[in-house]
Protein backbone atom coordinates (compact mmCIF):
# COMPACT_ATOMS: atom_id res chain seq x y z
CA UNK A 1 0.00 0.00 0.00
CA UNK A 2 1.42 3.39 -0.97
CA UNK A 3 1.29 6.59 1.06
CA UNK A 4 -1.68 8.84 0.36
CA UNK A 5 -1.00 11.70 -2.02
CA UNK A 6 -1.32 15.29 -0.74
CA UNK A 7 -4.26 15.75 -3.07
CA UNK A 8 -6.05 12.79 -1.50
CA UNK A 9 -5.44 13.49 2.18
CA UNK A 10 -5.59 17.31 2.09
CA UNK A 11 -2.15 17.71 3.63
CA UNK A 12 0.13 20.26 2.01
CA UNK A 13 3.68 19.03 1.63
CA UNK A 14 6.64 21.40 1.37
CA UNK A 15 9.87 19.81 0.22
CA UNK A 16 13.18 21.55 -0.43
CA UNK A 17 14.47 20.47 -3.83
CA UNK A 18 18.17 19.76 -4.23
CA UNK A 19 19.91 23.14 -4.59
CA UNK A 20 16.62 24.73 -5.64
CA UNK A 21 13.24 25.98 -4.51
CA UNK A 22 10.71 24.63 -2.07
CA UNK A 23 8.23 22.43 -3.88
CA UNK A 24 4.74 22.92 -2.45
CA UNK A 25 2.27 20.15 -3.28
CA UNK A 26 -1.34 20.38 -2.22
CA UNK A 27 -4.05 22.95 -2.67
CA UNK A 28 -2.69 26.30 -1.45
CA UNK A 29 -3.50 29.99 -1.72
CA UNK A 30 -0.42 32.21 -1.82
CA UNK A 31 -1.10 35.75 -0.65
CA UNK A 32 0.99 38.93 -0.79
CA UNK A 33 1.52 41.09 2.32
CA UNK A 34 -1.31 43.39 1.20
CA UNK A 35 -3.73 40.47 0.95
CA UNK A 36 -3.73 40.09 -2.82
CA UNK A 37 -4.14 36.49 -3.91
CA UNK A 38 -1.09 35.74 -6.01
CA UNK A 39 -1.96 32.18 -6.91
CA UNK A 40 -4.28 29.33 -6.01
CA UNK A 41 -2.75 26.10 -7.11
CA UNK A 42 -2.06 22.48 -6.38
CA UNK A 43 1.69 22.88 -6.93
CA UNK A 44 4.11 25.77 -6.59
CA UNK A 45 7.83 26.36 -6.37
CA UNK A 46 8.89 28.97 -3.83
CA UNK A 47 12.27 30.67 -3.84
CA UNK A 48 14.64 29.85 -1.03
CA UNK A 49 17.82 31.27 -2.57
CA UNK A 50 16.74 34.92 -2.35
CA UNK A 51 17.60 35.74 -5.95
CA UNK A 52 14.20 35.44 -7.64
CA UNK A 53 12.85 38.57 -9.32
CA UNK A 54 9.37 37.12 -8.87
CA UNK A 55 9.28 36.35 -5.14
CA UNK A 56 7.87 34.41 -3.51
CA UNK A 57 8.04 32.22 -6.60
CA UNK A 58 11.15 30.63 -8.03
CA UNK A 59 12.13 32.03 -11.43
CA UNK A 60 15.16 29.73 -11.80
CA UNK A 61 17.59 32.50 -10.84
CA UNK A 62 19.16 30.03 -8.39
CA UNK A 63 20.73 28.30 -11.40
CA UNK A 64 22.16 31.50 -12.88
CA UNK A 65 23.52 32.50 -9.47
CA UNK A 66 24.97 29.06 -8.84
CA UNK A 67 23.16 28.91 -5.53
CA UNK A 68 23.48 25.73 -3.51
CA UNK A 69 22.52 24.61 -0.06
CA UNK A 70 26.22 24.31 0.78
CA UNK A 71 27.01 27.89 -0.32
CA UNK A 72 24.04 29.17 1.65
CA UNK A 73 25.34 27.44 4.78
CA UNK A 74 28.76 28.96 4.21
CA UNK A 75 27.20 32.44 3.89
CA UNK A 76 25.23 32.09 7.12
CA UNK A 77 28.33 30.87 8.99
CA UNK A 78 30.17 34.13 8.30
S1 LIG B 1 15.16 29.09 -5.54
FE1 LIG B 1 14.85 29.43 -7.64
S2 LIG B 1 15.10 31.57 -7.86
FE2 LIG B 1 15.41 31.21 -5.76
What are the defining features of this structure?
78 residues, alpha+beta, Ribosomal Protein L9, domain 1, 3 helices, 23% helix, globular, binds FE2/S2 (inorganic) cluster
Characterize the structure shown.
This protein is an alpha+beta fold and 78 residues long. It has one domain (13-77): CDGSH iron-sulfur domain, mitoNEET-type (Ribosomal Protein L9, domain 1, 3-Layer(aba) Sandwich). It is built from three helices and three strands; from the N terminus they run αβββαα. Strands 1-2-3 form a three-stranded antiparallel beta sheet, with no helix packed on it. The chain is globular. The chain binds FE2/S2 (inorganic) cluster (FES). Residues 20-21, 47-49, 51-52, 58-62 line the site of FE2/S2 (inorganic) cluster.
Amino acid sequence: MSAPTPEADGIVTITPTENGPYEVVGQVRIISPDGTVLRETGKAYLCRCGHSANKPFCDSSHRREGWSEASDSEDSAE
